[in-house]
Amino acid sequence: MKKLLLIVLVLVLAMSMIFAGGQQGGGAASAAAGDPSVTGVFPRNESLYFNGILWDKVNSMNPYSVGGVTIFIDGVNARQAVFETLMVYDILSGTLKPQLADSATWDSGLQNMTVKLSPNAAWWDGSKVTADDVKNSFDLQKKYVTGYTGTVSYVESVTTQGTDTIVIKAASGSNYNPLQVESLVSQLYITKKADMDALVAQIGADETALGKWANLTGNKMDVQGSGPYQFYFGDETKAMCVRVDSYWGAKAGSRYGKLAAPKYLGHAIYKDNAAGDAAFRAGEVDISQQFISSIWTFPKFGQKGGINTFIPQAPYYLPGVIPAIIFNVQDERLADPAVRRAIAMSLDYNTIGQNAMSGYTAPYEANYMLPVPAEQALIDKASLAQYGWPQDRAAAIAQAKKELDAAGWAVGADGIRAKGGVKLSGLQAECPQGWSDWNASLEVVAATGKELGIDIQTYFPNATVWTQDLQNGSFTIIMNSYGGIGISSPYSRFYGTMNDVGLPPKGTPNPIGNYGRWHSDRANELITQIPTATDAAKLKAIYTELNKIYLQEMPAAGLMYRPGVFHTVNETVWTGFPQMNDGSGVGPQLDIDGYGIKGLYNLTLLK
């Protein structure tokens, strides 16, 4: 009986252990099943979704990437979600505002900028962001080829004064450029020196290694950031960031004093604009940065809980960028400015503006300035008139043909122009597949070619191929936007389009600009003068002459005045997005670009 009782007790104990183990294992499995980082399923009422930014699977969270497919990191727009910059650009005031730094001030000679870090600024692990971190972040751009290589050449040195103060000395001579330094402090992401020292020890001295670094092991980031979110999940369908609840800027007395409203920031990967638009209409997307036709026709437009834009009436969006076709002047078919001018002057700008851009643009004029008072005041339009073309398109086409004839481009029996054995056929106008407004614009470019006797076909690869073609110069005609809204506009537009000083050697990736590698000594000289021109009359003379060269040479041809960002919102889930004159002081910057990040702290769930 004792033996039997012992056997029964052992069996009962064993079964209880198995049952307990099963319960524990089942609990872990249930937890895993509900873990968004495993399942990829995120609570909708905790997630803010974007579209129009990401078109391929994320392969990089490298803040210094050259050509990587990333999300929530962009050097030009300086998205503040994951890594942060010293200062941020405010689209409404046109000024820089504090981020990691509390201030950034020039001395009287515009030679040395003193930057004071916020004493609260910290990395995700709680360690302090220091002056050494900042200095190292600048120094890395000089050691390696990154997206900042061109801009950092305008900094002679970065020195530290204690743990919280940095002095950035502007380069002297031809590289003296205070505007570029200001751009850099609002665009360069700061990284933790200890993490980057460890990385440098791994990647070695290869100058391209940092730009190629992925900063991802699976879905885990390899180095610390300082921003309010970190990368959390990515596959072929979406990319997600999760809120860092220990974020320094959320603490009392810090930058925002509270956490951002959404726990997750996400972006599904759509095959094209149409798919992204359908998701936006269905309320699966909260902020759309892609083109949407006739937004005013949407149900509940302008109402809380419906579809809204930053400006509640036409033109609905702030003009901020001039998408252009870039001509590869290294190609013998496009080396003659007469060919480039003919294409530019013959374009059906009205069709592009009304059909491709749904009327979100003013009538296009023959200059390279935005139709805003600040930029228009920088040119003498009367003196530029002789270098333009007729507003009437039939007259413009007639003038284009006349100039082509005069330049020796004769129409052959097949209707295609040729000169000296060079035939204007086989040209490709390229932009990413699915960017519907750009695709429609390039169809107009191709149609224009046919009217002139120039064979232009459209080519719409995926966004990754387009980026590679752009930076490698592997194109004939390619669409791109130079110089978005920033502290240095419109200088940055002319610098990106017409400057070739400091470009990487031919045959190497060029992340800087002037992708067609057009050259003019005079344009380089004028562009160099802009950052130090304090006299209004002198600045106007410079921009007028630059526009004259632009119209004569056409290294690129602007197609429209596109909004800097679309920032169209669907308030099905979230409300409180920035609107003009709402008192928030936040502009339409996707709630993550520059000072727009503040918009994440004003959101609430729609009740």
What attributes does this structure have?
607 residues; Dipeptide-binding Protein, domain 1; D-Maltodextrin-Binding Protein, domain 2; 3 domains; 7-stranded mixed sheet
Detailed description of the structure:
It is a single chain. The chain is of the alpha+beta class and 607 residues long. It has three domains: 135 residues, Dipeptide-binding Protein, Domain 1 (Dipeptide-binding Protein, domain 1, Alpha-Beta Complex), CATH 3.90.76.10; 140 residues, Periplasmic binding protein-like II (D-Maltodextrin-Binding Protein, domain 2); 245 residues, Dipeptide-binding Protein, domain 3. Helix content is 31%, strand content 17%. The protein has 18 helices and 27 strands. The strands form eight sheets. A seven-stranded mixed sheet has the order 10-11-12-1-13-25-14. Helix 9 packs antiparallel against helix 13, helix 10 runs antiparallel to helix 14 and helix 17 packs antiparallel against helix 18. It is globular, with a radius of gyration of 27 Å. The N terminus is likely disordered.
Write the topology of this structure:
Layout: H1 2-33, H2 36-39, E1 47-51, E2 87-90, E3 95-98, E4 101-106, E5 112-117, H3 131-143, H4 149-152, E6 155-161, E7 165-170, H5 178-185, H6 193-203, H7 209-212, E8 216-217, E9 220-221, E10 229-234, E11 238-243, E12 264-268, H8 273-281, E13 287-288, E14 307-308, E15 319-321, E16 323-327, H9 337-346, H10 349-356, H11 373-376, H12 381-384, H13 393-406, E17 410-411, E18 417-419, E19 422-423, E20 427-430, H14 436-452, E21 456-459, H15 463-472, E22 477-481, H16 491-498, H17 521-529, H18 536-553, E23 556-558, E24 562-563, E25 568-570, E26 574-575, E27 604-605
Parallel strand pairs: 1-12, 1-13, 20-21, 20-22
Antiparallel strand pairs: 2-3, 4-5, 5-7, 6-7, 8-9, 10-11, 11-12, 13-25, 14-25, 15-24, 16-22, 16-23, 17-18, 18-19, 26-27
Helix pairs in contact: 9-13, 10-14, 17-18
